[in-house]
Amino acid sequence: MKEYQEIAAKNRKDKNFASPDEFLSNMKKTDRLHPVVSLCVYYGEHPWDGPLCLVDMLELPEKIRPLVSDYKMNLIELRTSGTLQFHNQDVNTVFDISRAIYECDYDKINTVYGRMQITSELGVVIGAITQSQKLIDHALKLEQNGGQVNMCSALEELEKKAEQKGMIKGTIKTCKKIKLSREETTKNIIEEFSLSNEEAEKCMEMYW
User: Fold this and answer.
1) Distance separating alpha carbons of residues 193 and 208, to the nearest angstrom
2) Cβ–Cβ under 8 Å, residues 148 and 117
3) What is the pLDDT of residue 8?
4) Quick check: 158 and 105 in contact, CB under 8 A?
5) Alpha-carbon gap, residue 103 to 112, rounded angstroms
6) Which of 17, 32, 126, 184 is the most buried (most CB within 10 A)?
7) Which alpha helices (H) appear in the chain, and where do they start and end?
8) CB contact at 8 A, 159 and 106
């Protein structure tokens, strides 16, 4: 709309319309707008299994399907984005470190980023994506002091989180095996791992 208004204002000022239709619309036949490309970045831990276009969300008889205007979603799935290269190096860093954390590839993080200083802002973004509250807290604390995040020290917290995650997953599987109820299992992991109710529910949703 902003671009249309700019073009229309210029055309009204130039008064260079070739027909009544152009005059009424304030647009000449040769005028063109720039497209808007929207990207949806999915950084969930599990593979995307939702719709990829509007038609996927509609209940359509086959006869009507060709008549419906479809809108596709340009999905970037963080976990499978290894072949993508972004012009912005900060975006590359966020994607690369987050992928490595999901894959528990701490050797890569240590080798490539171990001595690297990243901004506190990037540390918060990576922490939010990978659900690492300790990394977020660490980054925010350093931001107040005008510092940067050292990935080598942050790596220790990430490894601890991954280790705890594996233990929680194993506990839930064991509880299921011995046929404990979901409620009993939730109570067990809250007590054993000092989780909040919200954290425990997230774990149950992932591994139950």
Assistant:
1) 16
2) yes
3) 94
4) no
5) 15
6) 126
7) 2-14, 20-25, 89-102, 106-108, 120-129, 133-144, 151-177, 182-193, 197-207
8) yes
